[in-house]
Design a protein that fits this description.
Layout (H helix, E strand, L loop, with lengths): L15 E2 L13 E5 L5 E5 L1 E3 L7 E3 L9 E8 L9 E5 L2 E3 L1 E6 L7 E5 L13 E7 L2 E2 L3 E3 L9 E3 L10 E6 L2 E5 L12 E5 L4 E5 L10 E5 L2 E5 L13 E5 L4 E4 L11 E5 L2 E5 L9 E5 L4 E4 L11 E5 L2 E5 L15 E5 L4 E4 L11 E5 L2 E5 L2 E2 L2 E2 L3 E5 L4 E5 L9 E2 L2 E3 L2 E5 L14 E5 L6
Parallel strand pairs: 15-37
Antiparallel strand pairs: 1-6, 2-3, 2-6, 4-5, 6-10, 7-8, 7-11, 9-10, 11-12, 11-13, 14-40, 15-16, 16-17, 17-18, 19-20, 20-21, 21-22, 23-24, 24-25, 25-26, 27-28, 28-29, 29-30, 31-32, 32-35, 33-34, 35-36, 38-39, 39-40
């Protein structure tokens, strides 16, 4: 037989990085490493299973905001380089390379250590591209999530411009709006603060035509609605419907609610806004608004009258959680979960909350209902519980770092729950600029 002849290129480096999906793309098969002030190191995977799919991995978020976070990556074809000739960027930000050499324990395995990661990376939302060059040769590009906080943990984002509580919060077109309310002075404001999740920055947009606290916000069909509320800190309830158009940064007033009320909750289902509860004497009120027709319909009352509650659309139904029975924060709290089915036009009951509480906040995320914060006679709740409507069961999660109350509405966006503002002490005189976030890792299917 004839001899085979071929040209073989021999090079000192041929960089390749290993990935969790074993295809050279996506999340690295590596670790994030936090170094504490005492020098102790804590390790976590840079990958996690994609929700609901056991065979696929995605980038696992990690906290890069403490200024002492490192990445440990593994690959091959790297050990022939000098460390000074290895460069790395994450999302275009240059990251220090501490080491690039043979791993030491496994034959043929190389290791690259990056860090400390620049704190600026924590202000980015979602995932970022990790690029490494070795002796001028680019390795396969990977994906990491250097965002704050890590999965299953609470963290912080940019504080509000103005302190606030007893206000509404809603999301529209990727922006979060804080609507009306009042600071510690308890003087109602017309201020509307808007948060850009990409830049982690707040701005002031067109003010409300009428300042209201304890309002019930919702967003649908590209418009933002601020429904009802109170014009003072006492009993001046209104039935106003104020509509915001972000395209023109303008407000207009629409058809009012059938009855004036505040301290309830609003939820969007099938393009309509359902508004439940309110301070006495409207605690059992339930009505639906059609923004296309600009018309209201009164629906069957809730089984129990409540205020300072929350609501969500789950599995095609309206779920109402918790609240308190009377107007003041010292009144008896409720742990009731009541469910309205538009198909039957009737209410049923779900599993009660682990703890009865009012002044709560919450939001639907991945089919689950997260409930957090709240108020009672001797203090403020930090509890964070999640409800699975499929199994009608509750589970307790990590407490909020700072307990708050007095916020109607939270936002779930790109894996994060955003909980802005709120009072830190019982009563209405402790509005804050806090902006707490939670990285969700629960799926209810």
């Amino acid at each position: 037989t004839a001899d085979a002849v071929a040209a073989v290129r021999i090079a000192p480096v041929a960089p390749g990085l290993f990935t969790a999906n074993a295809n050279g793309a996506g999340a690295p098969a590596g670790f994030s490493v936090r170094v504490g002030i005492d020098g102790q190191q804590s390790f976590d995977n840079l990958f996690e299973r994609f929700p609901g799919v056991s065979s696929i991995y995605e980038a696992k978020p990690f906290d890069s905001a403490n200024g002492n976070t490192y990445l440990m990556l593994f690959g091959t074809g790297i050990r022939g380089a000098e460390a000074r000739n290895v460069t790395a960027t994450i999302g275009g930000v240059v990251v220090p390379v501490q080491a690039a050499a043979a791993q030491g324990s496994f034959a043929g395995l190389d290791q690259v250590n990056l860090g400390p990661l620049p704190i600026v990376l924590a202000n980015r939302r979602g995932k970022a591209e990790l690029a490494i060059r070795v002796e001028g040769l680019e390795a396969n590009k990977l994906t990491v999530a250097p965002t704050l906080p890590a999965t299953g943990e609470w963290g912080r984002r940019a504080d509000l411009i103005e302190a606030n509580s007893e206000m509404g919060v809603a999301e529209l077109n990727g922006k979060i709006y804080v609507l009306g309310g009042y600071p510690s002075s308890r003087v109602t404001v017309t201020t509307v603060q808007a948060y850009d999740t990409y830049s982690n920055a707040w701005s002031i947009v067109a003010p409300l035509p009428v300042g209201v606290n304890h309002n019930m916000p919702a967003a649908v069909n590209g418009k933002l609605y601020v429904i009802g509320g109170q014009t003072d800190a006492g009993t001046a309830f209104v039935n106003l419907v104020q509509e915001y158009d972000p395209a023109g940064n303008v407000w207009r007033v629409r058809t009012p609610m059938p009855a004036a009320r505040g301290g309830g909750a609003a939820v969007v289902l099938d393009g309509k806004i359902y508004v439940a509860g309110g301070r006495p004497p409207r605690g059992a009120d339930f009505a639906v608004y059609d923004p296309v027709l600009d018309a209201w319909t009164v629906l069957p009352e809730m089984p129990s009258q409540r205020n300072h509650l929350i609501a969500a659309a789950l599995q095609g139904k309206v779920y109402v959680f918790g609240g308190r029975l009377e107007g003041g924060f010292t009144s008896q709290a409720s742990g009731a979960v009541e469910i309205y089915d538009p198909k039957t036009n009737a209410w049923t009951k779900g599993a009660a909350m682990p703890k009865a509480r009012g002044g709560i906040n919450g939001v639907e995320a991945n089919g689950c209902m997260h409930v957090f914060g709240g108020e009672f006679a001797t203090g403020v709740h930090a509890d964070h519980d999640v409800y699975n409507p499929v199994t009608s069961t509750w589970m307790s999660l990590a407490n909020m770092p700072v307990a708050v109350h007095g916020v109607t509405g939270a936002v779930f966006l790109d894996g994060l729950i955003y909980a802005a503002g709120g009072g830190t002490m019982q009563g209405g005189s402790s509005g804050s600029r806090l902006h707490q976030v939670y990285r969700v890792n629960q799926v209810c299917r």
